[in-house]
Design a protein that fits this description.
Blueprint lengths: L6 H6 L9 E5 L2 E6 L2 E7 L2 E11 L10 E10 L2 E11 L4 E11 L3 E10 L3 E3 L2 E8 L7 E6 L4 E5 L10 E12 L2 E8 L3 E5 L7 E6 L8 E3 L4 E12 L14 E8 L2 E6 L4 H6 L1 H7 L3 E6 L7 H14 L2 E8 L5 H14 L6 E6 L18 H11 L4 E5 L4 H6 L9 E4 L10 H6 L4 H12 L4 E6 L33 H16 L4 E4 L20 H4 L5 H10 L4 E6 L4 E8 L2 E8 L5 E4 L4 E7 L4 H5 L4 H4 L2 E2 L4 E4 L4 E6 L1
Helix pairs in contact: 5-6, 10-12
Amino acid sequence: MNNAPSLAIRLFGTDEPVTPLRILRAGALTAELDTGNLRHIRFGGVEIIRAISFIVRDKNWGTYNPVISDLVVDERADGFTVTYKALALDDNQAFRYSARIEGSAEGRLDFSAEGSAETPFLTNRTGFVVLHPIADVSGHPVTIEHVDGSIVESRFPDIIDPVQPMMDLRALTHEAAPGLKVTCRMEGDTYEMEDQRNWTDASYKTYVRPLALPWPYTLPKDERIEQAVRLTVTGALPASEAGSVAGQVTLGDVIGTVPALGLGLDPSEITDTIARRDRLHLVGAKVLVGYYDPSLGHDFTTLGGILATARSLEAEPWLEAVVQSVEGFEAEIAALGRDVADMGSPFKTVLLSPLPDLKCTLPGSVWPPAPPPRAFFEAARKAFPKARIGGGMFSLFTEMNRKRPPVDLIDLVSFTTTAMLHAGDDTSITEGLETLPAIALSARAIADGKPYAVGPSAIGMRMNPYGEAPLKNPGNIRQAMNFNDPRHRGLLGAAWALGFFARFAEGGATTITLGGTTGAFGLVHARHAWPQPYFDEVGGVFPMFHVLRGMARLAGKPLRKVTTPDTIEAIAAETGDGIELWLANRTGSEQSVALPGAPRDRFLLDANSFVAATQDGNALDTLAKPFDDRMLTLAPYAVARIRLS
């Protein structure tokens, strides 16, 4: 590994240091202390609550990183106490608070906070947020205590709820494991829940201040806030729940065919993409989805550039077109249709969205003026008689779930995702893969028998429905709402891409479009305004390049069901001479698994092969080595292709 970048660059694309989380223990109760908040609260090793956080947000839903002082952690054999002070501020306003966390071996945990604004403080949310995990919780019973004291038996949603599945909350009680119940009591305000799987967050989020109230709102200077979240665990775990062991990878029946791979194309990347077409052509993407938005200055020349780029990659061109007009939408769609017809109608699939639908409308808010959906797609059908017409949302699945297209008028439902709307840490990004089966289930329900396509999607955000724009990230750091996120260029990005493709393939997507060609969501390096350590010096392809090339090669082949341990992402397909099995470690620790058959060779993408892989577009073939071990060990965020006889 001569001239290899640091391990952090290879894994995450950034040298930004990460402070290890401190584990708090009180008997069978454990929790991770993360910048004053709690994550992965467990009892006997079973996750009972994913997170409890006291957060302060600005008027654009951005979350402050508070300055913490006077942190004291007192750990005892029978419990722990954490106290600290915190200040959330920017150039215009400040909010100061103090917090206390107490945990006991009896299965109690209290997290309280009180504070006040030092200036008039404009915020969309200030207070506690509680995250319930989704594994073994989705679709399961929950006992709800409302703020008026009434008790209701209900269930956590299975299909993703577009609005708030639970309102006016005081306490929630659920069974975290057979025989183990957890009550979460929330005090100091009225709480409600949203289904965070809408945004690929692996949790149900309960938060303060109902969205039906005005936002942003101002906290007057010196007005005091006092809130608390109190957990109580009752019952006991069976002995069999005490721990887990390394698992077996098993193959099941054929469940469909591997879908086609697409790549996204922003018009700003046309020149760089054509200049790098030789390498990008190796990926073998079947589809190129070109973005077209007249409000950004796109015109007939842009359409030609999208088409030329698709032809250079031998990919089927799709058009993803934004319609600006509200009153004159029919004329605008018709004019675009004439332009496309003048080009010979090359776009076999045309996806359309009104410009107002690029922004979010929260539950309880008034929808902005927009073309009537049925009239909109009737106009599209007339304008593009030779194309498949697609509808949904260009922003996020959430918005399509809240404003569903008239599926009887379209041929295809489509949506995109981001992995980092609410949190930008490594664990949240990879945990979000757990939500994709639920998104697939919900998308199929919305599509009502029509096919669905997902993407262009990436770890980062290509557009921000909740504010002006995604974050530009010139410091190359981990943060929510990044446009250019460093992990896209690292091994974490490759492991995430495999999990994303695999889960939507099993979920029935017909086309999966990931990232792009060059740029923030690309596969091949090109210089940009943001730093790209290592690649700015030597160029090359990102690790994700090889994963997507492998997925493209499998398109149309019989897809097999794969079962793995929770830490492993996987996809398997039948080829002419056996089974091709891809495995990815989505964690920061080494994982070992037993393979389901006799392997004959292995391609391994890890920290040791990073340099060779990033400098060789054909690494999928040149780095493959004979392999006959029935056990496979994967380093952090490593990806392996195993060919079984």
